[in-house]
Amino acid sequence: MKALIEKIKQIWSIEELRNRIILTLSLVLIYRIGSFIVLPGVDQSKIAPSDGILGFINMFSGGAFSRASLMALGIMPYISASIIMQLAGIAVPAIQKMQSEGESGRKKINQFTRILTIAICALQAPGYLTQFVPREAIMGGGTEAIPALWWITSVILLIAGCVFAMWLGEKITDKGIGNGISILIMIGIIAGLPGAFATEVLGKLGNGGFVILLLEIVFLVVVTIFSILLVQGTRRIPIQSTKRVVGARGNSNMVEGGSRSYIPLKVNAAGVMPIIFAQALMFIPALVSPNSAEFTNINGFWYNFLFALMIIVFTYFYTAITVNPKKIAEDLNRSGSFIPGVKPGEKTANFIDTLLSRITLPGSILLALIAILPVFAYQAGIKQEFALFYGGTSLLILVGVMLDTLQQIESHLLSRHYDGLMKTGKVKGRSSGGTAFQSAGNNTSSI
Q: What is the mean pLDDT of the chain?
């Protein structure tokens, strides 16, 4: 405990890091306040609680969805726009060109993503008002026609709320700590955790189930540890640096011995992105038709089968666009390094690609398994609200975002000659005196 307090003091003593943390917390607070501001002319008390897939959407928005607030659409339209842009980067040459243009290309892609976010909001906002805000909840909408002005202003406010949330996320990423969009999603999830845990505790203790409650907590801890291991697991490929001959011509030369290092390929190089991508697409049936029972029942077989399948597919997809074996092979060749027993160049790229495919398969299956664990928790008698934290999207996003944020704090500490948050080096990305290739496969940050 004394060491932890000392680390907190060190963090607080670094002005830049302190300012980044304060800014992040301030912007998160603004986001949470916005989620409680109800659309004008809506009686929140007459909106039925969300359950099933709608409850999932509500959890991602921190309860804003069921409150008909300005932030009701949350950050998911931006996620959907990001998915579309990344898919387009595979098939559209113009976007491929922008991706290869470095920072200027990234800015152009971000601008197109923002425009696409607004377009998606413009489509989702009328559907949300029609499907999920009952007529009796709209003031003056009993037997009378709802004014067109209310529809127009409500759609504009929902779009503005989503764009504002997107702006907050980008500001956190640029000037705060951690990945802003991911943090906003995480905050929305955490907001529902205390209430869900309290409901579970009261339900179990009321029925004399103290032992069962204790077992549930132990199982939750085990699943959390397993999720951390999956997120941080790596397969190290040893690399050897070639020997160099140094010394002036005509003088005795000295041979510098080559050093050994490694390339860490992550078992789950895609991080939480496959979960977020798959979940965003699973929201579509509920937004289009809430009566499509097969794909809106989060405890149903077909929902979870499709969800798991999409996670596996997106894991391969996102790994393919974030880890480039050819570039790693080129970097190795330029630095005079090689993988023992593998020829440089194309052979090295093929070796890395094959190994990456092999470790991605079990990684994607384990990721999908954790994602559907809440269904088994619910079937075991855990209440729906609390069961969502037994693995699933909630836990994986919490773990991934927490580790990513800790890694950034760790980097700030190490750059100023402080020890990291964990001296044992368990937070991946901590400098260990290796080569730049140690970051290969570890460059994925969640949206």
A: 79
pTM here is 0.75
Interaxial angle between packed helices 15-34 and 392-415, expressed in degrees from 0 to 180 and rounded to the nearest 10: 150
| Within a domain: 303 | yes
Instruction: State pLDDT tens for residues 110-154.
Output: 899 999 999 999 998 988 888 888 877 787 555 567 778 888 999
Strands (E), 193-289: 234-241, 244-246, 254-256, 260-266
Rounded to whole angstroms, how far apart are CA atoms 156 and 43? 19
The confidence band for 437, taking pLDDT boundaries of 50, 70 and 90, is very low
- Under the banding of pLDDT at 50, 70 and 90, the label for residue 211 is confident
Are residues 218 and 111 located together in one domain of the fold?
A: no
Residue 379 lies in a domain: yes
SS3 content of the chain, % helix, strand, coil (to 5): 65, 5, 25
Q: Which of 121, 154, 177 is the last residue of a domain?
A: 177
What is the torsional sign of CA 176, 179, 185, 186? negative
- From 283, 311, 292, 319, select the one nearest 373 (Cα to Cα): 311
Residue 204 domain flag: yes
What is the total count of domains within the chain?
Answer: 2
| Residue 443: per-residue pLDDT | 37
Structural domain including 214 reads 180-245+255-447
Instruction: Judge if 139 and 188 occupy the same domain.
Output: no
5, part of any domain: no
The amino acid present at 104, given as its one-letter code, is S
Indicate the residue type of 146.
Answer: I
Residues 275, 362: one domain? Answer: yes
Could you please report the per-residue DSSP string of 125-178? Answer: HHHHHHHHS-GGGBTT-SSSPPPHHHHHHHHHHHHHHHHHHHHHHHHHHHHSSS
d(CA 146, CA 142): 8
Tens digit of each residue's pLDDT (9 = 90 or more) over 20-34: 999 999 999 999 999
Length of the chain: 447
What's the half-sphere exposure (Cβ side, CA atoms, 13 Å) at 407?
22
CB-based contact 125:159 (threshold 8 Å): yes
**What's the pLDDT band for 242 if we cut at 50, 70, 90?**
low
**Cβ-contact 292, 345 below 8 angstroms:** no
- The predicted pLDDT at position 208 comes to 65
Among 378, 377, 385, 323, residue whose Cα is nearest residue 354? 323
